[in-house]
Automatic annotation (TrEMBL):
One Pfam match: ADH_Fe_C
Domain of life of the native organism: Bacteria
Cofactor: Fe cation
Signal peptide: none
Protein name: Alcohol dehydrogenase 2
Gene3D superfamilies: 3.40.50.1970, Dehydroquinate synthase-like - alpha domain (1.20.1090.10)
Length: 389
């Protein structure tokens, strides 16, 4: 199979992006611009405990808005968690929604805005283009440089059967994405590493996607990977490096724009069952399977991986395309291995007896597997898991 950049494409993204240090203090003015007087802020308990919500909530109050806080978002949000957040929005009489946090909070906020604007059940809108509008006005404020959810039309939910399913609709693009690097300064190294690798995977898989890869997504993916690769080790070594944090946040957003239009593939398909069954953080799930998937795709994606080598290894010269491809795979593998998180499936609770179930569940994520440079069989999926057990 060949990977081609499509000449015919459409491109969509969040209509307004604000990147500003301290920008979270402008949330009140931004919400008023969207016509809201009552808002619901959706976040997780960890951010409340860390004190990150105090100033933004005060800014909302100072602007004359009535702001309620829902802070019970769960990682890999289950359906019940999303439904509880919708009920909180109803109780607050919310006229707009603000997502504040990592991917789980942002994904939950998207669905709350949607389900408040046009009541519908989650199970009936899993898939592509099944959601109905309108939705409430929505502002997204990421506090991690990872998911890029602030610029994607996707929300991932964990079903009662531990499957991860996506709601995919242009309705999920927020009205405003607000990037404030100060909000990421307190991220621990392990979380920084997991989310950073997640963003890098978005860029890599968008650049090698077999469907909808286009000139805009390519340019965004390359710039995203450049920013992320150049700053990853810096933010792990010094989490207070504001310039590096800002670069990571912008890289994550650009990668989000890329994969929202040129979708991700096998890394994500194999990562989802790890989150669904073992509650492995999404970024770590991606990191665990990244290296073996790159190796698996090597022959099918050699030309694209060679291009990416110039981004992650600037200044290096390569004699052949094959050499550049192999250098890219080696560098990404080395980057994962030097990150401060678990390096094997056993370390996150997976046993050999779980591999068949993981592989079977990964094969259900067909909407992503079809984008992979090389077809993935059930045996392939199991072998990839086994290689990092």
């Amino acid at each position: 199979m060949t990977i081609q950049t499509s000449l015919n494409f459409s491109f969509e993204t969040t209509p307004r992006v604000i990147s500003e240090t301290g920008g979270a203090l402008k949330l009140g003015a931004l919400a008023k611009e969207l016509g809201a007087s009552r808002v619901l802020v959706i976040t997780d308990p960890g951010l409340v405990k860390a004190g990150l919500l105090a100033a933004p909530m005060q800014a909302l109050a100072d602007a004359g808005l009535t702001a309620a806080l829902y802070s019970d978002v769960q990682a890999d949000p289950p359906e019940a968690s999303v439904e509880a957040a919708v009920q909180a929005a109803r109780d607050a009489g919310a006229e707009a929604v603000i997502g504040f946090g990592g991917g789980s909070s942002l994904d939950t906020a998207k669905l709350v805005a949607l389900l408040m604007g046009a009541p519908q059940s989650l199970p009936e809108i899993y898939g592509i283009g099944l959601a109905k509008g309108p939705r409430l006005p929505l502002i997204q404020v990421p506090t991690t440089a990872g998911t890029g959810s602030e610029v994607t039309p996707i929300s991932i939910v964990t079903t009662p059967t531990h499957e991860k399913k996506g709601v995919v609709s242009p309705l999920l693009y927020p009205d405003i994405a607000l990037l404030d690097a100060e909000l990421t300064l307190g991220l621990p190294p392990a979380v920084t590493a997991m989310t950073g690798i997640d963003a890098m995977v978005h860029a890599i898989e968008a650049f090698t996607s077999r469907h909808k890869k286009n000139a805009l997504s390519d340019g965004l993916a390359l710039k995203a990977l450049h920013l992320l690769a150049a700053n990853m080790d810096k933010v792990i070594a010094d989490g207070r490096d504001l310039a590096a944090r800002a670069a990571m946040l912008q890289g994550s957003m650009l990668a989000g724009m890329a994969f929202a239009n040129a979708p991700v593939a096998a890394v994500h398909a194999l990562a989802y069952p790890l989150g669904g069954h073992f509650h492995v953080p999404h970024g770590l799930s991606n990191a665990l399977v990244l290296a073996p998937v790159l190796a698996f795709n090597r022959d099918a994606a050699e030309a694209q991986y060679a291009e990416l080598a110039a981004v992650v290894l600037p200044g290096r010269r390569f004699a052949t395309q094959a050499e550049a491809c192999d250098a890219f795979i080696a560098e990404m593998t080395a980057m994962v291995h030097r990150m401060p998180f678990a390096q094997t499936l056993r370390a996150v609770g997976v046993a050999e007896s779980d591999l068949d179930r993981l592989a079977a569940d990964a094969m259900k994520v067909e909407r992503l597997l079809i984008n992979n440079p090389r077809p993935v069989t059930l045996a392939d999926a199991r072998a990839i898991y086994a290689s990092v057990l």
